[in-house]
Amino acid sequence: MARATIKSIARETGYSVGTVSNALRGAASVKEETRQEIQAAATRLGYRVNLDGLKLRTNKSYRIAVLVSVSTDAEEEWEGVEFTRILAGISGALQGSRYELSVFNVADTADAMGTLEKIVKDGLADGVIFSGTLHDDPRITYLQQCSFPFVTMGMSDSEMPHPYVDIDSQAAAFDATARLIQLGHRRIALVNPPSELVYATQRRNGYGEALKDAGLSMNTELVFDGPTTARTGQKSFEALMQLKELPTACICANEAMTLGVLSAAHQAGVRIGQDIVVISTDDLQLSRYFVPPPSTYYVPIGETSRLLGEFMLKALDGADPSETQKKIRATLIERQPDTPAPKTALIK
Fold it and tell me: Is 245 left (phi over 0), alpha (psi -120 to 50) or beta?
C-alpha cells in the first residue's frame, strides 16, 4: 500500500493541498469541522508526518511548554492537584495538531525566569503557557521582548495585549459578597490569595465594590492574604476567632482554603451554616464532599484549560491577541441556604 501523502489526502477529501497542509498543522485559519474531516481522512489513510524532517525544515520543536508551579514545602498536600486537569484540557486541545506538551516544574518566579530563558534560547518549545500572573510580571515582559508566543492563565497589567484565559475573579467576589449582604450578613471575611497576584486584587476589588454598593465600608481586619492552601484557611479562621466581634460569613478563594476554614471552625466549636456561612470558589468540585458542603462559585476547569491550548495554537499561527482573550464568569452552585445572619453577631 502506497504511503499516504498530503496530495492523496487532498484527493480523498476534495480540499486543496494548501488547506490539507494547514489543517494537519493545526492552523487557526482552517475551520474546526474542516480540520476534523481532514484529520479523519489522514488517520484513515494512515498518514504519518515525518516530524524529524519537519523540525529540520521549519526550525521548530513542535512542543508547547507548560510551566507548573510546585511548592518546595512538602507539607502542602493540595499543591498542584489542579494541574493534572489543566494539562488534560490543554492536551485535548492539541490533539490533531503536530504539537506535544512539555512540562517544566518551577518553584518560584526566579526559577521560572531561568526556565524560560532556556526554553527560548535553546529552542526547547515554540510557545509557553503559564499561570499565576503578577502585577509586575517579569515572565510576560521577557517573552514580549523576545517576541515569543505565550498564553497566560490570568490577565496581566501589561500595556501590550497578549493571549489569556481568565476567571472573572472580580465578578465572582462581587457576586458572593452581594449575595451574602442580601441575606443580611454585614461582617463578611475574605480569605484571599497573595496580594502580588493580579486575581487577588481583582477579588479584593469585587469584594470592596459589593460592600460599597451596600453602604458598608471594608474592614481590613476581616481580610486575609496568603498562599492558596488549607493552612492559610486554617490560620485565617484562627485569627478571626481572636476578634471581639466574629464574622457571620467567610468567602474563600479556593477549595483548599475552604477546607482549612472548615477544619479550624470545627476545632473551635463554630457551627458551619449556623454560626457562620462559608462560600468557596473552586475548579475541582471536591467541595461537594466537604461536611457540610459549601455553596460554591464554580468555573469549569476543563473549558478553561482547553481554551489555553486553543489560544496557544492560534498565537503560534499569528492570531491577533484580541482573538485570544477570554474571561469566564463563575456560576453559583448553591449547596447551603447560606442562612441569613443572626440579628446580633457572635460576641466572644
Answer: beta
- List, in sequence order, every residue forming a beta bridge with 68; answer none if it has no partner: 105
Burial of 216 (0-12, 13-18, 19+ CB in 10 A): middle
Distance between CA atoms of 31 and 28, rounded to whole angstroms?
Answer: 7
Angle between helices 109-122 and 138-145 (to 10 degrees): 10
The pLDDT value recorded for residue 79 is 55
Measured from the Cβ of residue 183, the count of other Cβ atoms closer than 10 Å reads 15
Q: What is the pLDDT of residues 296-325, one digit of tens each?
A: 999 888 889 999 999 999 999 999 998 999
* Separation CA 114–CA 42 (nearest Å): 39
First to last CA, the chain: 83
Please state whether beta strands 295-298 and 331-333 pair in parallel, antiparallel, or not at all (unpaired): antiparallel
User: Contacts from 41-44 at CB under 8 Å and sequence distance 24+?
Assistant: 41/9, 41/12, 41/13, 42/4, 42/9
